[in-house]
């Protein structure tokens, strides 16, 4: 979960977030190298006034500084397209959950288990037993680990957005429209998200709490809930 003064991504809990983190680190390495080279070049030019008044054209240099940006863009584009393909790659889900955004709470329905549905409200600050202010919810969404999860989201009134950073997923909950997310969680734990689309005065009070548990514990939770 996020902490104070955190400048990096949260620890990834899904393969899609791992791919996004790797692509981010790869791109940042290239950007850092370009920034350092440009800074060194500007420093050299400002300190030394080396000119050649007989130089009219240099085709080799022009070819090099035209080809290098093209190669760099290709170097970034190829893994970007691969990551995009992996994120959009459909699969046969083991579990389908429907998330409906309201002002200002979430409703969840488990399509594979008739009658299994509930509302999830933010836990008031006065009732908190931990320090997860604005993130705790009275009902958490239980999902099995190492399973393919499909989440369908929509809005009941205005546009919301269902987002869990540790999973690397985000989808707008638009009234009258169904959007779909596919993800898989690799490890058990409690993960938090929030509505990421301004939806009114209490937009900041729509937390998302996910509890990833082994399949056996998930089936026990379903039996207990019913």
From TrEMBL:
Gene Ontology CC entries for this record: mitochondrial inner membrane
Main location: mitochondrion
Domain Cytochrome oxidase subunit II transmembrane region profile: 1-91
GO function term, MF aspect, one: cytochrome-c oxidase activity
Reactions it catalyzes: 4 Fe(II)-[cytochrome c] + O2 + 8 H(+)(in) = 4 Fe(III)-[cytochrome c] + 2 H2O + 4 H(+)(out)
Top-level division of the source organism's lineage: Eukaryota
Record key words, sorted: Copper, Electron transport, Magnesium, Membrane, Metal-binding, Mitochondrion, Mitochondrion inner membrane, Respiratory chain, Translocase, Transmembrane, Transmembrane helix, Transport
PROSITE patterns: COX2, COX2_CUA, COX2_TM
GO BP terms: ATP synthesis coupled electron transport
Cell compartment(s), UniProt: Mitochondrion inner membrane
Cofactor(s) the protein needs: Cu cation
Membrane-crossing residue ranges in chain numbering: 26-51, 63-87
Residue intervals of the Cytochrome oxidase subunit II copper A binding domain: 92-224
Membrane disposition: Multi-pass membrane protein
Cofactor note: Binds a copper A center.
Subunit structure: Component of the cytochrome c oxidase (complex IV, CIV), a multisubunit enzyme composed of a catalytic core of 3 subunits and several supernumerary subunits. The complex exists as a monomer or a dimer and forms supercomplexes (SCs) in the inner mitochondrial membrane with ubiquinol-cytochrome c oxidoreductase (cytochrome b-c1 complex, complex III, CIII).
PANTHER family noted in UniProt: CYTOCHROME C OXIDASE SUBUNIT 2, CYTOCHROME C OXIDASE, SUBUNIT II
Sequence similarity: Belongs to the cytochrome c oxidase subunit 2 family.
Protein's job: Component of the cytochrome c oxidase, the last enzyme in the mitochondrial electron transport chain which drives oxidative phosphorylation. The respiratory chain contains 3 multisubunit complexes succinate dehydrogenase (complex II, CII), ubiquinol-cytochrome c oxidoreductase (cytochrome b-c1 complex, complex III, CIII) and cytochrome c oxidase (complex IV, CIV), that cooperate to transfer electrons derived from NADH and succinate to molecular oxygen, creating an electrochemical gradient over the inner membrane that drives transmembrane transport and the ATP synthase.
Protein name, as recorded: Cytochrome c oxidase subunit 2
Organism: Gammarus duebeni
Organism taxonomic ancestry: Eukaryota, Metazoa, Ecdysozoa, Arthropoda, Crustacea
Gene behind the chain: cox2
